[in-house]
Amino acid sequence: MLPTSTWARRMAERALLAATRQLLERLGAGVTARVWRLGFASRFFLYMILHSGVAFRRFWLTVREIYFAGVLSLIIILVSGLFVGMVLGLQGYETLQRYGSSEALGILVALSLVRELGPVVAGLLFASRAGSAITAEIGLMKATEQIAAMEMMAVDPIARVVAPRFWAGVISMPMLAALFSAMGIFGGYLVGVQLIGVDEGAFWSQMQASVDFREDIMNGVIKSVVFGIAVTWIAVFEGYDAAPTAEGVSGATTRTVVTSSLAILALDFILTALMFTGGNAR
Amino acid sequence: MKRITIDLWVGAFVAAALGALLFLALKVGNLAAFSTAQTYVVQAKFANIGGLKVRAPIKSAGVVVGRVTEVRFDNESYEAIVTFNIEGRYQFPRDTSAKILTSGLLGEQYVGLEAGGDGVMLKSGDRLRLTQSAVVLENLISQFLYNKAAEGKDEKAGK
Is residue B73 less than 8 Å (CB to CB) from chain A? Predict the structure, then answer.
């Protein structure tokens, strides 16, 4: 064997080893960073919960944020709810009338809205309408050093800025989901009963016979509370953690919408598995 | 924006949300129909309950008078014990019979009550004596097939 070829092979081996090592290092760094960030987010959450006394003692701070997170999201929630319900009415009727059971339209619309679509779609809309606004606001406060200024004045920015926004989101979300469901059922009623001509008595009475207050409506409310906590937690954390630059704030806003939407869908699957399959298996 | 205006809007928002929840509870759900009314508990033993589920309606003369609250297996008699709530304003004689019926051809199953003639009324915790099990389609078909086969044999024997 020629000495040059041995040398070339040794070099190739070394390069391969270095590449593998680099890959592993990058993987390790990525995982460590994510775990660290998750831990930071959890510590942030705990700190925020423990320091949310101000948000309740000076409730005006929270009310103001409910206005921004809840009242200003009303239009998009109500209009989307109406249209989702109307589409459910049309599509549901289309399928049900093939089997001659178009009176069951009320059940279909009410159950799918109250159990799933209400909390989930309202949560997704809330994440993109209010969550992104919260992140951008807190991120900009950080970029313009308002947060640092508060710390200089011995005002805890988490208690004064973050906690009221968090609680406002947690309070607003279930109310928005309930309004979404109610509006959707009204939309289904408009299309099903008024437009297509399903019998009105059967529409409501079949709905009432199969929608249970505790099993269906309360579980929907619990879902929306969980989504509210998840979305606002992600939103305030991303805002607080954003790099204090224009680029950092825009990146944090995007991350809020993506992460909280995925969190809603994942949580919804888990909650549905816990809530509704146990009852049906009996 | 002024504080008063924000307070007003938030108040309206909360009121609307409570209204929506109330609408869901009363008009969409069945909260008003049952949880406010006084109920009493009655049990019945069935040899086979078919597909009867918790929350299935209890009907008498086609009117919903209660709901199934629990279905469990009795390990001594190897039968099913069905517990159900009946609304307090509906009183039934003690010898009322219970049947498991199906709404429509393949619809959901419910318990049908047929009033007896006893002067004493059912109390909470009573057990119905006369019950009739659910019709299981497979048993019905096999019975039908056996009958047919028996008929065929008779015809052959008669020849």
Answer: no
Take residue A86 and report the two structure tokens written for it.
């109307």
Among residues A156, A137, A168, which one has the least CA distance to residue A240? Answer: A137
Rounded to whole angstroms, the Cα distance separating B24 from B29 reads 6
Nearest-angstrom CA–CA distance, A18 and A236: 40
* Range scoring the smallest mean pLDDT among A79-83, A229-233, B153-157: B153-157
Q: What is the mean pLDDT of chain B?
A: 84
Residue with tokens 């779609």: A121
List the 141-180 stretch of A: residues with Cβ below 8 A of B: 172, 174-176, 178-179
The answer, yes or no, to whether residue A281 has pLDDT greater than 50, is no
Q: Give the Cα separation of A134 and A201 in Å (integer).
A: 44
* 3-class secondary structure per residue, chain A: CCHHHHHHHHHHHHHHHHHHHHHHHHHHHHHHHHHHHHHHHHHHHHHHHHCCHHHHHCHHHHHHHHHHHCHHHHHHHHHHHHHHHHHHHHHHHHHHHHHCCHHHHHHHHHHHHHHHHHHHHHHHHHHHHHHHHHHHHHHHHHHCCHHHHHHHCCCCHHHHHHHHHHHHHHHHHHHHHHHHHHHHHHHHHHHHHHHHCCCHHHHHHHHHHHCCHHHHHHHHHHHHHHHHHHHHHHHHHHHHHCCCCHHHHHHHHHHHHHHHHHHHHHHHHHHHHHHCHHHHHC
Which residues in chain A are closer than 8 Å to B29, comparing Cβ atoms? 208, 211-213, 216-217
> Is the CB of B31 inside 8 Å of chain A's CB atoms?
yes
Q: Convert the pLDDT of each residue in A241-269 to its tens digit.
A: 999 999 999 999 999 999 999 999 999 99
Query: How near does any CA of chain B get to the CA of A118, in Å?
Result: 12
Say if B27 is an interface residue toward chain A (CB within 8 Å): yes
Structure confidence by residue, pLDDT tens digits, A200-241: 888 888 888 788 888 888 999 999 999 999 999 999 999 999
Residue-level pLDDT at A27: 95
Of A64, A207, A211, the CB nearest to B6: A64
What sign does the dihedral A172-A176-A177-A178 (CA atoms) show?
positive
Which residues in chain A are contacts of B12 at CB distance < 8 A? 71
One-letter amino acid identity for B123?
A: K
Q: Which residues of A touch B64 (CB under 8 A)?
A: 209
Helix crossing, A132-143 with A163-189: angle to 10°?
160
**Chain B 118-157, residues with CB within 8 Å of chain A CB atoms:** none
